[in-house]
């Protein structure tokens, strides 16, 4: 692959734009990124905002690319991939999919050829440069292509490789769906704070800052989250009383059950959108 591969995003929704804007912010050359979408007006706006080349012609952009990032919705993926198949050169191009529930084998089937494919499961904090993504590469992907895929996803946060495609379902249950778990916790804490007499504005600021501080503390500490929890929990104190309430309600088991449900749904979606 060239030293600076040309990256084309097919589908320029929120996630694709977060990634490509992250790449630009990290110094990736404007003339090495392009994007396509269905609406010319939106593509013109994106071009004006970023300076990259945009188009509504998927095939034309694919032909000039070294890496094609597929960012359309899962239900649209089959038709989209089959439509660009004639423009894909499997001998020198890498295909990266950021769509949930689309198996690499399905993409190969739609392309009609054995192609280097990377599956990626990003999450919505990528929109603010704090993403956490899992990546899986098929056997056809070279080490250089893997490095390129890492560069793309690291522009908006953490990017970690998993060994099997099935583990992408686990990534989906952990970091893909994970932000919503924390948002739910924040919602519940804000509501609880209001019941205790705080205003919505004060409650929200305290809860959000506490969440941000706890996450940063956990990332920067040499201690595990469990050790940090113990350190902040004084015997017979207020924190212990709150944690006892969580434990009595089966909080840990409920988290595990919720993640297992997300994992199972990810596997079901893979079968639902599987190439026939």
Description:
- It is a single chain.
- The protein is of the alpha/beta class.
- Helices cover 54% and strands 13% of the residues.
- The protein contains twelve helices and eight strands.
- An eight-stranded mixed sheet has the order 3-2-1-4-5-6-7-8, with helices on both faces.
- The longest helix has 22 residues.
- The radius of gyration is 21 Å and the shape is elongated.
- 33% of the residues are buried.
- The model has no long low-confidence stretch (mean pLDDT 95).
Overview features:
eight-stranded mixed beta sheet, 8 strands, alpha/beta, 13% strand, elongated, single chain, 276 residues
What does this entry show, briefly?
Helices cover 54% and strands 13% of the residues. It has 276 residues and is an alpha/beta fold.
